[in-house]
Write a structure and sequence with these properties.
- This protein is mainly α and 140 residues long.
- The chain has one domain: NusB-like (N-utilizing Substance Protein B Homolog, Chain A), CATH 1.10.940.
- The chain is 72% helix and 0% strand.
- The chain has eight helices and no strands.
- The longest helix has 18 residues.
- It starts with a helix and ends with a helix.
Length: 140
């Protein structure tokens, strides 16, 4: 049975947060993360996919995020940045995941990892990115 994508996203937020703060190679972060954390319930293939692909597409993803945040991306909390990057990645490249699921997952990640009111900011930004990238799906 495949693992949970939610668990994979939770682990990816933490790994991408570490990548953003340290600049370490994502392969090193991923191998240490798998060694140091219990990922038995996570979809490890999807975790790997997020940890590899999000950094490779960082500029493209931020091009979708920046117009909706009202401040410099570097002034956004690093945890919130990781969540927004994952959401933007899924909205742009993972069309098998409905936009409502992407937004809901981002909000849940914010409730788990970010400050108390962050989920409102995350919800607003991901909703706007979804309107940009998935307008056809949203009008159905």
């Amino acid at each position: 049975m495949p693992g949970s994508r939610h668990q994979a996203r939770m682990a990816a937020v933490q790994a991408l947060y570490q990548w953003a703060l340290t600049g370490q190679d994502t392969d090193d972060i991923e191998s240490h993360f798998i060694y140091d954390h219990d990922l038995s319930g996570a979809d490890k293939v999807y975790f790997h996919h997020l940890v590899k692909e999000v950094p490779l597409r960082i500029h493209e993803l931020e091009d979708h995020i920046i117009p909706h945040i009202g401040r410099d991306i570097e002034n956004v909390d690093p945890v919130e940045r990781a969540i927004l990057r994952i959401a933007a990645f899924e909205l742009e490249f993972e069309h098998d995941i409905p936009f409502k699921v992407v937004i809901n997952e981002a909000v849940e990640l914010a409730k788990t990892f970010a400050s108390e009111q962050s989920y409102r900011f995350i919800n607003g930004v991901t909703d706007k990115v979804a309107m940009e990238l998935r307008s056809d799906e949203m009008s159905d």
